[in-house]
Write a structure and sequence with these properties.
Strand content: over 45%
Oligomer: single chain
Number of strands: 31
Structural class: mainly beta
Shape: globular
Radius of gyration: 28 Å
Largest sheet: 11 strands, antiparallel
Length: about 400
């Protein structure tokens, strides 16, 4: 491992101290920074191919690594720019923290998929240049604030990142960053695309966008199709908190929008006829919604009924059709609800305590999402890495309930 650090330059101005602002503006600060950093990563032996030890053999043993190292590996380098403001208004009843950032990372150290006939399954590469730019914002409000009475506070957050691959390694058109189940889907990097782009086979479509059918079954594309990105376009959250005397009630919602993922679980269950989507056609067959290609190159509506529902739904949801099992991971979650009570000072003096709070809470209570599985926030283990683009055998998510007791002596 090797690291290269370049000092950052940052500065800030408290504008409310040097400029006469309207009295509604209580505080205004501007900040900006430029920073550069290089890193070789944290994994050892990325530039050499040592034998690895194994405990499977009596007395120990050695075996070849499955990841091909790169003796010409260079450290990645990131140059980032950031600017933002912090402000408070109306006797600090409104607070705003807003940030814009832009960063370029070149020579990213990534692991790409290799054909196993090479003797390796992965290879360490420098992956060209990637640009990230986006915004982060936080807004804090106090709509109600009465001394000795009700106080209502609202805290909101929003973040959006735009990622673009500007270049890849020399003589490299694409990189496979993650491999789907059975190699039937991939997270791939192309110049002009984004990290997290999902590709796989899908429906062959007419110029109008309708699915093409042949003999009543959907036709699949021979080439890989772009199916979406596994990284959300934006995330947001909102927390409300109410305080009245010693009582406190708070609840937090958060959301993400703009990402997709492949669900092997739903695909397998559909092929086996275990999901509601496979109910149509079981009694009288089904005519797929789409078109057929005529001999003269024109298209007409599909009118062929299919009675072999196993073949029909296998063509729609089988592992060869990645598009058929790609779903949106958009969600809104009731992330947390808390109810607390803080005992008054007069009561605490009698028991010789400084503080006594008791409360109940619940986390991950409800999910609103079109994701067909248990939870769109999944992570599938692939070796030692967490694969976020492909869901495989997801377990149900759990709600958490608890009691919190805080005592100060």
């Amino acid at each position: 491992m090797y690291l290269i650090f370049i000092p950052s330059v940052n500065g800030s101005l408290i504008l409310s101290d040097i400029i006469n602002l309207p009295r509604q503006v209580n505080f205004l600060k501007w900040r900006a920074s430029v920073a550069g950093v290089g890193s070789g990563g944290t994994s050892p032996f990325q530039t050499s191919n040592p034998y690895l030890s194994s405990q499977l053999y009596t007395g120990g043993g050695l075996y070849n690594p499955t990841t091909l190292s790169n003796e010409n590996l260079k450290p990645l380098f990131t140059l980032s720019y950031e600017t933002g403001i912090e402000a408070k208004f109306f006797k600090e009843r409104v607070g705003l923290d807003f940030t814009l950032y832009h960063s370029n990372t070149r020579d990213q150290i990534l692991t790409t998929i290799l054909d196993r006939s090479s003797g390796y399954s992965n290879m360490v590469v420098n992956a060209g240049e990637v640009r990230n730019r986006g915004i982060e914002a936080a807004l804090n409000l106090t709509p109600i604030k009465k001394r000795g009475g009700l106080t209502w506070t609202v805290n909101t957050t929003f973040s959006k990142n735009e990622n673009k691959i500007l270049s890849l390694a020399e003589n490299t058109e694409s990189l496979i960053l993650q491999n789907g189940p059975g190699s039937n889907g991939y997270v791939m990097a192309y110049v002009g695309g984004s990290m997290g782009d999902l590709y796989g086979r899908g429906y062959k479509r007419a110029p109008s966008g309708e699915i093409i059918y042949n003999a009543g079954l959907p036709v699949l594309s021979e080439e890989l199709l772009y199916l979406g990105n596994t990284t959300p376009d934006w995330k947001a959250g909102i927390q409300n908190k109410f305080k009245y005397k010693g009582f406190s009630l708070g609840f937090l919602f958060d959301a993400q929008v703009g990402a997709v993922a492949y669900s092997l679980t739903q695909g397998k269950m559909a092929v086996q006829g275990k999901t509601k989507v496979t109910l149509p056609g079981r009694e009288n067959g089904i005519v797929g919604r789409g078109v057929v290609e005529n001999e003269d190159g024109t298209y007409s509506p599909n009118t062929v009924a299919v009675y072999d529902m196993s073949s029909y739904y296998d063509q729609h949801f089988g592992v060869a059709n990645v598009e058929g099992s790609v779903f949106s991971t958009d969600f809104i979650k009731l992330r947390e609800v808390r109810f607390d009570y803080s005992f008054k000072a007069k009561v605490l003096q009698k028991v010789k305590l400084q503080k006594l709070n008791i409360g109940v809470y619940g986390r991950d209570l409800f999910i609103w999402s079109k994701w067909p599985g248990f939870d769109p926030e999944f992570g599938t283990l692939s070796g030692s890495e967490i694969n976020r683009g492909f869901e495989i055998g997801q377990f149900p998510s759990t709600r958490t309930y608890g009691v919190n007791l805080s005592v100060g002596f």
